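Duplicate of #3305? Posting structure anyway:
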């Protein structure tokens, strides 16, 4: 999530809402000990479809390629399905090799569509495996 202006004044309220998993949004963190090493989130795309969510994922540079992103994404997928989502979408830079590895790990490479330097991902959710 990026802010192109001032951060919200009620940051605690905002963070509490962000971390509440429901049919509109969810954020999950991955920790090694007490250190946050990854975050994944989804937000419902209500203007597209009430059952479509867009996800974002970030893992600390030194902790990439160890399955953390794949684990976060699987958990996000399960949470989204549990809360009524049936499709997940994302925009991925074609040069983002770690994220493309996560997509391969999930078996989603056939769901990618290229648009210049960006890849569009759209997958159907099937619930907990």
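Output from current build:
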């Amino acid at each position: 999530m990026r802010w192109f202006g001032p951060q919200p004044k009620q940051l605690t309220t905002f963070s509490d809402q962000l971390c509440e998993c429901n049919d509109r949004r969810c954020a999950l963190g991955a920790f090694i000990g007490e250190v946050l090493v990854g975050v994944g989130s989804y937000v419902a795309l209500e203007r597209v479809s009430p059952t479509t969510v867009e996800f974002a994922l970030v893992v600390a540079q030194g902790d990439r390629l160890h399955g953390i992103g794949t684990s976060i994404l699987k958990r996000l997928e399960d949470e989204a399905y549990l809360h009524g989502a049936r499709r997940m979408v994302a925009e991925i830079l074609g040069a983002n090799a770690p994220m493309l590895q996560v997509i391969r790990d999930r078996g989603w490479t056939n769901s990618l569509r290229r648009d210049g330097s960006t890849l569009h991902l759209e997958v159907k959710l099937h619930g907990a495996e």
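Confirmed duplicate; merging threads. The beta strands are 25-32, 35-44, 52-59, 87-93, 112-115, 118-124. The helical segments are 11-18, 68-82, 97-106.
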